[in-house]
Amino acid sequence: MRQWWQQGSPWVWLSASALLLCLGLFMALLGLIAVKGMQHFWPAPLVQFQLSEQDTPQLGRLVRQVSDRSEAATNGLWLLDRGDGLSKENAENTASSGRYLLLEAQQLLPERPSNAVLVQLHDGRTLYGTMLDAAEVWQSQEQAETGLWLELASQRPVLLPAEDIRAYWLPNQLSLWQRGAVFWQEWRHFLTAAPSQNQSAGGIFPAIFGTLVMVLLMAVLVTPFGILAAIYLHEYAPKNWLTQLIRTSVYNLAGIPSVVMGVFGLAFFVYVLGGSLDRLFYADQLPAPTFGTPGLFWAALTLALLTLPVVIVATEEGLSRLPQAQRLGSFALGATQAETIWKVVVPQAAPAMLTGLILAIARAAGEVAPLMLVGVVKSAPQLPVDMQFPFIHLERKFMHLGYHLYDVGFQSPDAEVAMSLVYAIGLVLLTLILLLNLSAFLLRQRLRRKYRLID
Known about the structure:
Belongs to the binding-protein-dependent transport system permease family. CysTW subfamily. By secondary structure, the chain is of the alpha+beta class. 54% of the residues lie in helices and 12% in strands.
């Protein structure tokens, strides 16, 4: 036992246990986000409820059972979604329309009508009703229009035109395979459509696109400056107090709060640089600003400055791990210092540079606070990249997954109900970060195999 302690085996097992615990917690977190997010798209059955014995039975979808029973009956409470009204005014404000209700268990009726239909409209509204045949409504009139007859609670049957309907299905008649088909259909719509109904419905494609363009533009800006700064500090700069002061400043820059960096980006990049560009090149459009207002380019530049220390430190660490003999051998063969750095040092330090880029992407994709000041908006009518010249519009505002998640989760009038949508957005954000990092990781592994070095 004493020899076992002297060899350090307990610390090895302790480190392994800590690593397994961290991996387990991380996988549990991912599993929770995935399960909660996917529940948002699973077609749940429609139930009938009755607020009082005198009221007409209505249709709704059970969201979840309320855990706090302080004000509940003995059987607990259920949170129920009864859909949007037909009027657009009610659809724009779900709080005033009373879409979500707390029901006692005895108010739920056991019957689940087989002809209960869920209708998704193109404007984002969701309707629950009973699907009728046109012949049952108008016996003497031929149906010249194509659409869907729907009977809503306390209303006469209405005809929904086909051009207004995005999708509909009968939840109480779906088999498991049909539910899976509806699930993937709703996921595809969520990833490819624009938000609607005050960001509480529709899709998140503009947010995905804006996040991807912003991260890629940030990577293009931060990579060359970070690598060049690290090469200068390690290969050219003399080892004196000034170089040490610069390194200390770089390390301190990494500790600046992101919101402070956002304030700096707003003051310097937007108002100073952007205002100067407007006065030089867009004077005829003043006082309406072109670049003197928050936009995509300033957001990417602010995040590039925020993540610059990460790239510098990772690159310099990789440069310091290269054997000095390789540099001396290159000099002995007649190569200049510039040729040695370009053809010997940089290729072998490329994995370390990509490590810094991976860390920069992971941090930039999840930042929200600075972006709220330098370009991100709740809803952007135009994408920052389109088919209009010059195709990439750096001055436009854009949507971001992190800010969209914050807006849905904390600014929605039904924040508790929107939690499943928050989990779904979080799952997409994590997946996007994972794909970006995986691409850089595979490129790094390819370079490692090529030069057989470990950064």
